[in-house]
UniProtKB/TrEMBL annotation:
Cellular component terms per the entry's GO annotation: plasma membrane
PANTHER family, per database record: GENERAL SECRETION PATHWAY PROTEIN, TYPE II SECRETION SYSTEM PROTEIN F-RELATED
Protein name: Type II secretion system protein F
Bilayer topology term: Multi-pass membrane protein
Transmembrane segments: 168-188, 218-237, 373-392
One Pfam family linked to the record: T2SSF
Organism: Coprococcus eutactus
GO biological process: protein secretion by the type II secretion system
Boundaries of every Type II secretion system protein GspF domain copy: 66-189, 269-391
């Protein structure tokens, strides 16, 4: 969340100034206007990290639960204001609870629910705002909420599959790092004095291990600085045009991971397009919203170009076919949907297909990484054993030869 300094005029004509938190300038403006202020000036406070900070996000699971409960309450005949008040008391996520309270305040002043959600664009994604807006205009808010529930549940399931595949290797690597640190801090120093008393030339592996132990014990603070500098440096580099393009290419072409990223993008594209268009949102607007939610710059730029072509009357399947990073099946199935006049249903089937493909890819990834991790572990253990016991065995051999 960014912090903005503001100068405003209230309904009584009095000047006020202060600070407000919002995800961006647009969000800050909408918050102030919703409270009846006329904005004179609005400037963002500078951050010592230059905007590299980490933002808290509301998970798809939380949004799905909110939409499910909100839909049930609306179907029971409860007003939107009362429903928002009721939901605010039940939601555990503090960020979401505050955003719901802001939405209730906005609706109480006569605003629409969709506009109320726009006050917190960092909490409520564009797909949710647009579908709520479509539901309000068509009088089918409950139906749109039910579609959002299905969308968020499947999106959460997709994310869970990917995270589940990465949990095992991450845990193993973390344990390996901890073990290495313990060995360097608690084991190696005990052997160092003995090695010094031997007075013999130590192998390179042993000297490197002893140097690493000294570094971890006496210069650990420098290690923290180096790691922090690398993390923030990479995060900053990814925000540059060149860095974003580079990481986008790596994300699509990396062995194993590239295939998984492409299939995940296809699943989310097809699912979101189907959900938006089934709710009455035009294809042009749907493509734009899907493009904005894509993390990969290459895919995002390709979809924004597709939006321009669709606005000129070109079928969606044509620009999708030109996006060579996407599998041909996506454009082929989209073309069939266009020809049959049931593109929403076809995209839904495509999403189901790629959901299964993502699950198969994550299983293959886990199966491929397990032996690689075991080999890595064996290599690390072997290096430690060789570094510690190599000189000892050499000393015993020398004693036997005397």
């Amino acid at each position: 969340m960014a912090v903005f300094n503001y100068k405003v005029v209230d309904r009584d004509g009095k000047n006020k100034k202060g600070t407000i938190e919002a995800p961006n300038r647009d969000g800050a403006e909408k918050k102030l206007k919703s409270e009846g202020y006329s904005i004179m000036s609005l400037t963002e406070q500078s951050s010592p990290l230059g905007g590299i900070g980490f933002k808290k996000k509301v998970k798809s699971r939380d949004l799905g639960v909110f939409c499910k409960q909100f839909s049930a309450v609306i179907k029971a005949g409860v007003t939107i204001i009362s429903a928002l008040e009721l939901m605010g008391d039940q939601i555990e996520n503090k960020t979401l609870r505050k955003a719901i309270a802001d939405a209730r305040t906005y609706v109480e002043k006569g605003g629409t629910l969709a506009d109320a959600l726009r006050v917190n664009p960092d909490v409520f994604p564009p797909i949710m705002i647009n579908m709520v807006s479509a539901g309000e205009m068509s009088g089918n808010l409950e139906i749109c909420l039910d579609r959002l529930v299905e969308h968020f549940e499947k999106d959460n399931a997709l994310s869970s599959k990917i995270k589940g595949a990465m949990t095992y290797p991450i845990v193993v690597l973390c344990v390996m790092v901890i073990v290495i640190i313990v060995v360097l801090v608690a084991v190696i120093p005990n052997f160092s004095s003995m090695f010094e008393e031997m007075g013999t030339q130590l192998p390179l592996a042993t000297r490197m291990m002893m140097a690493a132990a000294d570094f971890v014990m006496y210069k650990w603070w420098l290690l923290i600085i180096i790691v922090a500098a690398i993390v923030f440096g990479v995060k900053f580099f990814k925000k540059t045009p060149f860095g974003e393009q580079l990481f986008a290419n790596i994300g699509l072409k990396a062995p194993i991971f590239g295939n998984l990223n492409v299939k995940t993008a296809c699943a989310r594209f097809a699912r979101t397009m189907s959900t938006l268009m089934a709710s009455g949102i035009s294809m042009i607007d749907a493509v734009e919203q899907v493009a904005k939610m894509m993390d990969n710059k290459i895919i995002r730029d390709g979809l924004m170009d597709a939006k321009v072509q669709v606005s000129k009357g070109v079928p969606l399947s044509k620009p999708l076919k030109d996006m060579t990073m996407l599998p041909p099946m996506l454009s082929a199935m989209t073309k069939i949907g266009e020809e049959t006049g049931d593109i929403e249903e076809m995209l839904s089937k495509v999403a189901d297909y790629y959901d299964e493909e993502v699950e198969a890819a994550t299983n293959a990834l886990t199966a491929a990484m397990e032996p690689m991790i075991m080999v890595l572990l064996a290599g690390v253990v072997g290096m430690i054993v060789a570094a510690v016991y190599g000189p000892i065995m050499s000393m015993y051999d020398a004693m036997d030869n005397v």
